[in-house]
Amino acid sequence: MTEGTTSADASEGGDTLTRLEQEGEIAADYLEGLLDIVDLDGDIDMDVEADRASVSIISDSGGRDLNKLVGREGEVLEALQELTRLAVHRETGDRSRLMLDIAGYRAKKRAELSELGAKAAAEAKSTGEPVKLQPMTPFERKVVHDAVKSAGLRSESEGEEPQRFVVVLPA
User: Could you tell me if 85 and 114 lie in one domain?
Assistant: First the structure.
């Protein structure tokens, strides 16, 4: 069993947890190699959140160097996440839904998007009209959908990638 897995985990749901922990370990190894290649310092933190492996690269120096790996609007981060998922797929043969965060970018973005979703839900409630948001990545849309659901409303995605956007529907 991997570190952090108890015998209770090995029963129902334990197989999934072990698989997700394995994904996290494969991803961490891949990302450590990447950090070595680009000569950047960063600590790697692994977790399992909402039935997916989550890996974060954090820096003691405030993450300024790691911002190169985030890129403009998180574009480099998205690409690195896909490469990391491919590395996991290559090792396991299974498609990964692994989530990568670098220098807290995705965590900060999640907080901003949750607030945006809550504000859009409040607007839809008060006006009784659907609220259309700007185009977003799949990750961004998911966070907004979750925030709208928490506010007690429904939302849906419309349009085609990369111009797909969220519409918040009134009650």
Answer: no
Total number of domains constituting the chain: 2
pTM tops 0.90: no
Q: Of 159, 152, 155, 158, whose CA–CA distance to 169 is shortest?
A: 155
**Residue whose token pair is 């961490």:** 28
Other CB atoms within 10 Å distance of the CB of residue 46: 17
**Residues with Cβ within 8 Å of residue 36, at least 6 apart in sequence:** none
Q: What is the pLDDT of residues 70-123, one digit of tens each?
A: 999 899 999 999 999 999 999 999 999 999 999 999 999 999 999 999 999 999
Cβ–Cβ < 8 Å for 81, 53: no
User: Is residue 8 a part of any domain in this protein?
Assistant: no
Q: Which domain holds residue 81?
A: 14-103
Burial class from Cβ neighbours inside 10 Å (0-12, 13-18, 19+) for residue 62 reads exposed
Q: 114 and 77, same structural domain?
A: no
Tens of pLDDT, residue by residue over 21-63, are 999 999 999 999 999 999 999 999 999 988 899 999 998 666 5
- Together in a domain, 113 and 151: yes
